[in-house]
């Protein structure tokens, strides 16, 4: 077990605009299409930048289930280092980070695809390059903050978080905060093995700041009590969604296919009726 990198800042300026992006899960082609729709352009240093200086903010779960986890890791390693993007912690990100750190974890629910990608990468590029990428990925995932406070003119206007957050937790750090941000308000596991999730957004009493979250896929972006869910299950054949702040605009691109290998996806709960 190696030294855990220091967490990056959990404050992001929205003075030039921010584009929140929902769960990508290795859907790199859809991610690239979404960036183009948002107006990002490749610069001379190879990074994608917005002409107006907007920042890209991922809600986590960039890996697992889909086909291109390594490409997504490489993108955020490069773009966070360049100061043009950020990302918060997430449940799949946390699992992959611990695996990269050599901890005893069971890779399942699509995380095993990340292991396979690294195996193929090492075969193609050699152990030295593979070791470097593993360390860069470990640092990226371990250093991601539990949530991101987005400020405009020094005022807190939005919070980016993977699975949810209580208003009392905003700005704080503790094991309870990290767990809630990664997994949401979970009340055990159902007979089908899926987590039983409490509707934390439905129970929210305040309406500010706006909380933008993912993790629990919905067929369409869902607004409730000052929260906005932008996980539209791209890896399950749904959509990849971005939320543009301060424009209050939603931009989505359709998935090219259902990459998950699951016929009964989380979206089924909302579409079966």
TrEMBL record:
InterPro entries: Ap4A_hydrolase, Calcineurin-like_PHP, Metallo-depent_PP-like, MPP_PrpE-like
MF (Gene Ontology): phosphatase activity
Domain annotation Calcineurin-like phosphoesterase: ranges: 19-219
Domain of life from the UniProt record: Bacteria
Pfam families linked to this entry: Metallophos (PF00149)
GO annotations of cellular component type: cytoplasm
PANTHER family in UniProt: BIS(5'-NUCLEOSYL)-TETRAPHOSPHATASE PRPE [ASYMMETRICAL] (PTHR42850:SF7), METALLOPHOSPHOESTERASE (PTHR42850)
Designated name of the protein: Biotin transporter BioY
Source organism (scientific name): Brevibacillus nitrificans
């Amino acid at each position: 077990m190696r030294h855990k990198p220091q967490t990056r800042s959990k404050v992001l300026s929205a003075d030039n605009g921010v584009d929140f992006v929902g769960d990508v899960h290795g859907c790199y082609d859809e991610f690239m299409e979404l960036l183009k729709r948002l107006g990002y352009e490749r610069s001379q240093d190879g990074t994608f930048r917005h002409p107006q200086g907007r920042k890209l903010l991922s809600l986590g779960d960039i890996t697992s289930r889909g086909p291109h986890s390594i490409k997504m890791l490489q993108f955020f390693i490069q773009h966070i280092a360049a100061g043009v993007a950020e990302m918060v912690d997430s449940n799949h990100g946390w699992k992959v980070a611990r695996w990269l750190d050599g901890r005893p974890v069971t890779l399942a629910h699509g995380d095993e695809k990340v292991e396979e990608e690294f195996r193929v990468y090492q075969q193609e590029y050699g152990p030295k390059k593979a070791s470097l990428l593993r360390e860069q990925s470990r640092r990226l995932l371990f250093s991601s903050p539990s949530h991101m406070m987005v400020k405009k003119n020094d005022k807190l206007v939005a919070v980016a978080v993977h699975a949810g957050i209580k208003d009392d937790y905003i700005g704080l750090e503790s094991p309870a905060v990290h767990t809630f941000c990664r997994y949401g308000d979970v009340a055990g596991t159902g007979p089908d093995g899926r987590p039983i999730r409490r509707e934390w957004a439905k129970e929210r009493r305040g309406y500010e700041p706006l909380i933008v979250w993912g993790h629990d896929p919905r067929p369409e972006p869902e607004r409730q009590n000052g929260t906005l869910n932008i996980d539209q299950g791209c890896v399950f054949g749904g959509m990849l969604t971005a939320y543009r702040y301060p424009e209050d605009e939603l931009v989505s691109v359709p998935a090219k296919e259902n990459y998950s290998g699951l016929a009964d996806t989380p979206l089924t709960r909302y579409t079966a009726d």
